[in-house]
Design a protein that fits this description.
single chain, mainly beta, Neuraminidase, four-stranded antiparallel sheet, 3 helices, globular
């Protein structure tokens, strides 16, 4: 315990003042952490998560939304309608009309014109076995439904599937693809296999596929099926055609063509609200899920509880991807 003499010393009083200042500062910081823990956690996590959303428009323009600054610069008109996007080899690949493919590394573009030589739209992309695969549509100058493989150096033609390849997904050590209307097929180690066809769906193409709960979920028209590697099971029917699947925070979400988004809970699809006219695509950086409306062009974010409208990207928005 300090003596009376030492307590009267100016140096002792200065030491007391410094100690008091540290205590008050600590209390302020502690109070702030208690009041806003969620915001601080999200800000910290966001600094390490992907912070840019790339949006491909039907006009061919690419826009980039920075989720930290809120800015929406344009990368310019890339010449053709954009149908698909996929990250591969440290680049973001874009699938265009007429067989064109481009890759963006964050600074510059690499372009491959008319991949496959049939001027067919690049409707789907997927990474499987360290390679990038693309699925094409109806051939204008050649066969339809070609699947091409890119190993980071060159493209290899794997052959025509005879019809549009509208969706691709890696599952159960195979590359599943939707080719013939109403059916799903697979590719592995050079072997093509007919997996299954859906009852009464022979006139419709699969719109999207996603892996969730060790199953492959498939959306065709307004019906959702699952495949466990053996058979198929109907997982529900929704009010409008399927647009896009996305797994976010260990839950499966689906958007449909009337603007609604649903989450799969206990075997039932539960609406999480009307988000516009047509939610064309969704993606996540693990912190939030982002959606783009294909008609009014509104970009929105969802944290699992509420939706926030961010920007009007422009009508005709087709796809989006974090990169």
């Amino acid at each position: 315990m300090a003596s009376k003499k030492s307590r009267k010393n100016p140096a002792y009083k200065e030491l007391q003042l410094i100690a008091l200042t540290f205590i008050i500062t600590g209390l302020i910081i502690a109070t702030y952490l208690i009041q806003k823990p969620k915001e601080i956690r999200e800000s910290s996590a966001q600094s390490t998560a992907a912070s840019k959303v790339y949006i491909g428009l039907g006009t061919g323009e690419v826009k980039v939304y920075n989720i930290i600054t809120g800015k929406l610069p344009s990368l310019g008109d890339q010449g053709e309608t954009i149908f698909s996007m996929m990250k591969y080899g440290g680049k973001l690949f874009f699938g265009f009309a007429k067989g064109n493919v481009k890759a963006y590394n964050g600074t510059s573009w690499t372009t491959w014109a008319n991949v496959g030589g049939n001027a067919a739209n690049v409707y789907s992309m997927e990474v499987f076995g360290n390679n990038l695969y693309i699925g094409q549509g109806l051939g204008i100058d050649g066969p339809s439904g070609q699947i091409m493989r890119y190993n980071g150096i060159a493209w290899t033609k794997l052959g025509s599937r005879g019809s549009m390849v509208t969706s691709m997904k890696a599952y159960n050590s195979k590359l599943y693809y939707a080719g013939t209307p109403g059916c799903v097929k697979s590719f592995k180690a050079g072997v093509w296999k007919d997996e299954f066809c859906f009852p009464n769906q022979s006139n419709y193409f699969v719109k999207d596929m996603e892996v969730f709960d060790n199953k492959l979920f498939i959306g065709i028209k307004n019906v959702i099926y699952s495949h466990d590697g053996v058979g198929i099971l109907i997982q529900g029917t929704l009010p409008a055609d399927i647009a896009s699947f996305k797994v976010f925070k260990n839950k499966l979400y689906v958007s449909i063509n009337n603007g609604y988004v649903y989450v799969f809970q206990n075997g039932t699809w539960v609406s999480v609200g009307d988000q516009g006219y047509k939610v064309a695509d969704m993606d996540t950086n693990g912190i939030k899920m982002y959606s783009i409306d294909g008609i009014d062009g509104m970009l929105k974010s969802y944290d699992g509880v509420k939706w926030v409208t961010l920007k009007d990207v422009g009508p005709g928005s087709q796809v989006l991807k974090f990169f």
